[in-house]
Write a structure and sequence with these properties.
Radius of gyration: 19 Å
Strand content: under 5%
Order of helices and strands: HHHHH
Oligomer: single chain
Largest sheet: none
Structural class: mainly alpha
Number of helices: 5
């Protein structure tokens, strides 16, 4: 008896699955996740995480900061009590950027971890703290 390989989904099936995922995603979930991703990536590009010192890129850090600053007024009302943690993480990232831009090595502390915001109906990835992928 030979094992059959699983059939690959058709383009139509893939499109239908994508549409079903889009129906479940809320804009505020994407905005919050984008904000958290920018903070986390900015911290990495600042070399704040152990082992990322060689990835320092002040321009990328600046862009992350500007992105968070642009999104924060839109997202802040949705964050509730978590807004303070986001503001604190942004402040720490701005401090690290200032140190990097002036040629200093930033203090070895990473920005306060951005809170994991679980959208309604969150799945196991959101609950575990792993990267959230919209629709999964």
């Amino acid at each position: 008896m030979s094992e059959q390989e699983p059939r690959q989904p058709t383009d139509e099936e893939l499109a239908a699955a994508y549409e079903a995922q889009l129906k479940q995603i809320r804009v505020e979930d994407v905005l919050i996740q984008t904000l958290v991703s920018l903070l986390n990536l900015g911290g990495r590009k600042a070399g704040l995480s152990p082992g990322t010192e060689g990835e320092r890129d002040p321009e990328q850090v600046r862009q992350a900061i500007e992105g968070v600053r642009a999104l924060l007024p839109v997202v802040e009302p949705l964050l509730g009590p978590d807004a303070g943690q986001i503001r604190e993480a942004l402040s720490q990232l701005q401090l690290a950027y200032t140190q990097i831009a002036s040629g200093e090595a930033p203090a070895g502390e990473a920005p306060a971890a951005a809170p994991e915001r679980e959208p309604e109906g969150s799945g196991p990835a959101q609950s575990s703290g792993r990267l959230w992928v919209p629709g999964q």
